[in-house]
């Protein structure tokens, strides 16, 4: 997570941090945290999407069309024909792809806000502030 910290007194000029500046720093920290959460959520949804794709592929390899395929709805499994199950899997994949797309758009918007805040904060504080992501 990126943090907005003031660096130590090594050749540092005194810069006054106004209430407005503190609000920008707080906004930067909140948006960085939110972006990290969204990226984790996107990764989880992509794993779920891959699982749905794998299930769809396995379903296509079944030989017996008369078998009922259990499909989980909520907390129960309900038997459906292969065709119905395939349709339900496709619908679930499409819905999940739309969710991922929406989350990626939100991440992009946040990155733009962070870029603007970085420009403003670095313009005022220069090297006295660190807005880069921690590597740990």
Structure description:
With 136 residues, the chain is mainly α. It is 63% helix and 10% strand. The longest helix is centred in the last third of the chain and has 44 residues, at 82-125. The radius of gyration is 24 Å and the shape is rod-shaped.
Give a brief rundown of this model.
With 136 residues, the chain is mainly alpha-helical. It has two helices and four strands.
Helix content: 55-70%
DSSP strand tally? 4
Give the overall pLDDT as a whole number.
88
Low-confidence stretches: none
State the end-to-end distance. 9 Å
Largest sheet features: 2 strands, antiparallel
SS summary, helix count: 2
Helix/strand-derived category reads: mainly alpha
Lateral strand order in the biggest sheet: 1-4
Strand content: 5-15%
Q: Tell the overall outline.
A: rod-shaped
H-E order:
EHEEHE
Radius of gyration using CA atoms only: 24 Å
């Amino acid at each position: 997570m990126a943090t907005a910290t003031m660096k130590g007194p090594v050749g540092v000029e005194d810069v006054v941090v106004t209430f407005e500046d503190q609000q920008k720093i707080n906004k930067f920290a909140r948006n960085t945290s939110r972006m990290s959460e969204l990226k984790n959520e996107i990764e989880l949804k992509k794993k779920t999407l891959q699982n749905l794709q794998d299930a769809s592929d396995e379903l296509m390899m079944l030989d017996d069309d008369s078998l009922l395929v259990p499909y989980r709805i909520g907390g129960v499994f309900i038997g459906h024909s292969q065709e119905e199950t395939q349709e339900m899997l496709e619908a679930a994949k499409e819905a999940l792809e739309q969710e991922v797309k929406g989350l990626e758009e939100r991440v992009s918007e946040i990155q733009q806000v962070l870029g603007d805040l970085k420009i403003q904060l670095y313009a005022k504080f220069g090297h006295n502030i660190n807005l880069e992501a921690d590597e740990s």
